[in-house]
Design brief:
Number of strands: 13
Largest sheet: 8 strands, antiparallel
Distance between the termini: 28 Å
Number of helices: 10
Order of helices and strands: EHEEEEHHHHHEEEHEHHEEEEH
Length: about 375
């Protein structure tokens, strides 16, 4: 367990923070909790609480990595913005032409579904037929493809949909000519100096945090080993532009809370790391952060939320899968932000930002950021 304390905060502040978070962990039965705080454009505090593995009684460490779930979508969106800047595609392109098969809501066959619609979940596409195989929505491969579309016209409604982003990842692969995970590694992860990735076998498995699903009937935590499924056979027989969902562009990024905070700072600074390369243009970053859908405040894999910290507009995303809950939210003008990840909790999963994440972020804000 490691700790970073900036000269900008005092030992009294960190002690109060840890007392508060210990109480939050107890309140919500968290297995482990990793936090990272950015203030005045600097990473000022990172800390890991609780356990990485219950069975082995291993404490959680700041260098440990989580499968962060849907925050991963922002990596895919960032890759798309890079390709748009390179004039290899446009956000207003017909998605059918990009993905290589017909994407049309059969109830509105004349309405073009654009890349922007897919990225903002306004495409009218749903996950009813699953999302780990693109054949479900391909009219040439599935007789039930029409069930993948809702009743409203594309661009005029919103439904959060994982299939959207597994298709977005596929577009990155088709347009760039690089395997999806390699593209993200070469164009985002490595330029930012992060230890992260999608392919399990390319990462140190000793650093994987065990994720635990909470059984509400038995009030016990059950490990979810499939969170780090290596999918060796699928990768060995990989078909470019087809098998992309095995890496889960929609939720498969593995990264530590500390490195996720460094990635967050790039978006907080509109596309440029404080001491690093520019990853996307300021215009692209602002486009990602601009709300398109009223529900969830969704933009292009970056949400706008007004009810997380009272009186403050925050940008970011959440994630939940295999018992993990994650949050990455930042304030781009005031240059502060938070990453909070738990690998298991009894906290209510049916709330937009689950209570353990909300309470932890507000504690970090009150104790370490608020002036």
């Amino acid at each position: 367990m490691t700790l970073i304390i900036s000269s900008r905060i005092t030992l009294a502040q960190t002690a109060k923070t840890e007392t508060d978070i210990d109480a939050i962990i107890k309140k919500f039965d968290a297995v482990g909790l990793a936090v990272a705080v950015v203030k005045d454009n600097k990473l000022i505090y990172t800390h890991s609480f609780g356990l990485k593995d219950i069975g082995q009684n291993v404490p959680l460490n700041n260098t440990d990595i989580f499968r962060i779930a849907s925050i991963s979508k922002s990596f895919s969106a960032t890759g798309i913005m890079q390709l748009a800047e390179a004039k290899k595609l446009s956000l207003d392109d017909d998605f059918s032409k990009l993905i290589g098969f017909k994407i049309r809501n059969p109830k509105y066959p004349e309405t073009v579904i654009t890349l922007r619609m897919v990225m903002s979940h306004t495409s009218s596409i749903n996950d009813s037929q699953g999302y780990f195989n693109l054949d479900v929505i391909n009219p040439d491969k599935s007789t039930n493809w029409a069930k993948c579309y809702n009743d409203y016209e594309p661009g005029k409604g919103y439904q959060y949909c994982n299939l959207n982003y597994n298709m977005v990842g596929t577009v990155i692969e088709k347009i760039s000519g690089e395997r999806f995970d390699h593209y993200i590694k070469h164009h985002i992860i490595e330029p930012l100096g992060l230890y992260a990735g999608y392919e399990v076998s390319m990462l140190d498995s000793a650093r994987f945090v065990t994720l635990y699903e909470y059984n509400r009937n038995t009030k016990t935590f059950v490990p979810a080993p499939l969170a780090y499924n290596p999918r060796r056979n699928e990768i060995e027989n990989y078909v470019m532009g087809s098998n992309t969902p095995i890496f889960s562009p929609t939720g498969g990024m593995k990264i530590s809370a500390t490195d996720l905070a460094r990635y967050m700072m790039m978006h907080m600074n509109y596309g440029k790391a404080p001491k690093g390369k520019r990853i996307i243009s300021k215009e692209s970053a602002k486009t990602m952060q601009t709300q398109i859908a009223d529900k969830d405040g969704y933009g292009l894999a970056i949400r706008t939320v007004t009810d997380l910290i009272p009186g403050t507009i925050m940008k970011g995303h959440t994630g939940s899968a295999y018992g993990l809950y994650s949050a990455m939210f930042f304030q781009p003008e005031q240059k502060f932000g938070f990453v909070v990840i738990t690998n298991g909790t009894s906290s209510n999963p049916n709330i937009d930002i689950t209570p353990i994440l909300r309470e932890t972020i507000n504690s970090l804000y009150d104790n370490l950021v608020k002036k």
